[in-house]
Write a structure and sequence with these properties.
Blueprint (H helix, E strand, L loop, with lengths): L1 H7 L5 H13 L12 H8 L3 H13 L3 E4 L3 E4 L2 H4 L27 H6 L15 H13 L7 E4 L2 H12 L5 E6 L3 H9 L3 E8 L2 E2 L1 H9 L2 E6 L13 H12 L5 E5 L21 E6 L11 E5 L1 H4 L21 H15 L22
Parallel strand pairs: 4-5, 4-7, 7-8, 8-9
Antiparallel strand pairs: 1-2, 3-10, 5-6, 9-10
């Protein structure tokens, strides 16, 4: 163990040491359940101070990569141990909303749509965005008071959050995340060698006082879900959004990333927690639920810094057409929204201590 680490890890700061060890774990060169060398032994081997190794081990513990026991030492957790929340079995007679799979009968016929696409790829620098889609989404954002002057298209809401974190923060930065929260949000933070800071939620979203503690503790970004929160189904109330805006106004430098993935299906009104004049922010809305789970298309509004990054541009007439069904997308979305609401009372898989669900949750793009 010590020899392999010594060969592959270079003398560096604690933050870089964390990234190097985590990469070894991810690549399988340090297997699950393996014991890492004692602090002083590793410090001597790679030429850093014991304090640097101790800080690196502490960061790896916070990210859920390792655990430490005074008797057994520091060991690498198995992939299942690193998951934030395990999938729950579906009780007999219940409707499992965790996977949030849409009814295929409500989705457009993508085979007919893509067969009629005549895409042009004449250059890398050209625009490949569908103008009707962008206009539709611009109207959607502006109706909720969101600045839509910079719109981005990317392969799913989770990808938008991941790339925004990478564009806005650096290794070792702290990120406030919902607790309990969407697995992919937590995994994105850890995957970028950042430190997730859990913030408790209730049925109205993040608790303002808990978010304030996280931000005063050094969190550089916060990931929020305004409605259809995973895994609880919580949605921000107007009062809670006002409270969160007040907390965030004391930290104008913090990046606020809003994952509004279910906006096209939710009956809950969007509640603004951003406020005006924030320098780093993003609100992303996904098309995968009403159009196709595997379409992997989301549109985001963002600040100038995040918006200046090179994102994925795509041609998506499927997102605006009727899917070959002869009906506009709006009608298809309305049917899907009504079906998701009607399905909920039949039974849901609930998180411990949660009795209220407002929509699909769990795995999504």
């Amino acid at each position: 163990m010590i020899e392999s680490i010594q060969k592959l890890v270079k003398p560096s700061s604690a933050v870089k040491l964390v990234a190097q060890i985590e990469q070894l774990v991810r690549d399988g060169r340090i297997p699950p359940e393996a014991l890492l060398p004692p602090v002083r032994e590793l410090a001597s081997a790679v030429g850093v101070s014991p304090g640097t190794v101790a800080a690196a081990y502490q960061a790896l513990r916070r990210q859920g990569v390792v655990s430490t026991d005074r008797r057994r030492g520091t060991r690498v957790l198995s992939p299942t141990s690193q998951r934030e929340y395990a999938d729950l079995p579906t009780p007999p007679g219940a409707v499992d909303l965790q996977a949030a799979n849409p009814d295929p009968e409500l989705l457009p016929d993508l085979h007919r749509i893509f067969a009629g696409i005549h895409a042009s790829s004449e250059s890398y620098g050209g625009s490949h965005l569908d103008p009707e889609l962008m206009e539709r989404m611009r109207e959607d954002f502006e109706a909720d008071g969101i600045d839509a002057s910079r719109l981005l298209v990317i392969g799913g809401a989770s990808a938008a959050i991941y790339r925004s974190l990478r564009a806005s923060l650096k290794l070792g930065d702290k990120v406030a995340v919902e607790d309990p929260g969407f697995n992919e949000h937590h995994a994105s933070v850890r995957g970028l060698s950042m430190i997730p800071v859990p913030v408790a939620i209730d049925d109205e979203g993040m608790l303002p006082e808990q978010l304030s503690i996280a931000l005063r503790g050094g969190a550089k970004a916060v990931i929020l879900t305004p409605r259809f929160q995973s895994p609880t189904g919580a949605a921000l109330s107007r009062a809670r959004a006002t409270q969160l805006r007040a907390v965030l106004s004391d930290h104008p430098e913090v990046a606020v990333l809003v994952d509004d993935y279910a906006s096209l299906l939710s009956e809950e009104k969007y509640q603004d927690c951003l406020g005006k004049g924030r320098s780093r922010w993003l609100v992303v809305r996904s098309l995968n639920k009403p159009v196709s789970p595997d379409l992997r298309v989301a549109v985001a509004a963002a600040d100038a810094e995040i918006g200046a990054r090179r994102w994925l541009g795509v041609l998506v007439p499927a997102a605006r057409g009727g899917g070959g069904t002869g009906q506009p997308l709006g009608a298809s979305i309305a049917r899907s929204r009504a079906a998701s609401v009607l399905a909920a009372p039949q039974g849901v898989v609930e998180s411990p201590g949660r009795a209220r669900h407002r929509g699909p949750r769990g795995d999504r793009a």
